[in-house]
Amino acid sequence: MGSPMNRNFLDLLEVKMVVKFKLISACCENMGIGKNCDLPWRLKSEMAYFSKMTTDTVDKNKKNVVVLGKRSWDCIPDKYKPLPDRINFVLTTTKNLDLSEFKDTYVFNTWEEIVKKLEEENFKHQYEQVWICGGSKIYEDAMNSKYFYRLYLTRIKKNFDCDTFSLNWWTI
């Protein structure tokens, strides 16, 4: 017979899910991440990696959350909206943006609203991981938040003509 401490330990232990942001990005040598609302490169293996990382879950009853800024959302071709098999969060300063036509898509105006949703009792059991997917301001805000956990970065060892740039990851 085990001691009361061991027997009741799991009953007494309150497991609190901690929100952690994982950032995922690809950038070229000049820190570019985009050109004309598109990726400046075509790398099938990189797109497959992004999709696998942001989609795969251990618990197949759950999905991952992807957080994108409005411009990044707008740059996704319509046929890929929302990003499939993921819960899409769009962070924007645009008030009353309506994306209700898209399944599993939510609009937020602040990071505080996002964290509040992630911590909701009825919602926190629906997702496994939170992936920050850009753009540059979203990356910067997430990286500087207390919720930042890990960066998954593909470094493309070539310069591309870009009009959108990321943080200088090498100096962080």
Number of domain modules: 1
Tally of strands:
8
Question: Helix proportion of residues, in percent?
Answer: 25-40%
- Characterize the biggest β-sheet: 6 strands, parallel
Average pLDDT score = 90
CATH superfamily, called what?
Dihydrofolate Reductase, subunit A
What's the tally of helices? 5
CATH architecture descriptor text: 3-Layer(aba) Sandwich
Structural class: alpha/beta
Biggest sheet: strand arrangement: 5-4-3-6-1-7
Organism: Cryptolaemus montrouzieri
InterPro entries: DHFR, DHFR-like_dom_sf, DHFR_CS, DHFR_dom
Pathway: Cofactor biosynthesis; tetrahydrofolate biosynthesis; 5,6,7,8-tetrahydrofolate from 7,8-dihydrofolate: step 1/1
Protein name: dihydrofolate reductase
Give a verbal description of the structure:
The protein is an alpha/beta fold and 172 residues long. It has one domain: Dihydrofolate Reductase, subunit A (3-Layer(aba) Sandwich). The protein has helices spanning 4-12, 44-55, 70-75, 111-119, 136-143, and strands at 21-28, 32-34, 63-69, 86-91, 105-108, 127-132, 148-156, 164-165. α3 links the parallel β3 and β4 (86-91). The termini are far apart. The model has no long low-confidence stretch (mean pLDDT 90).
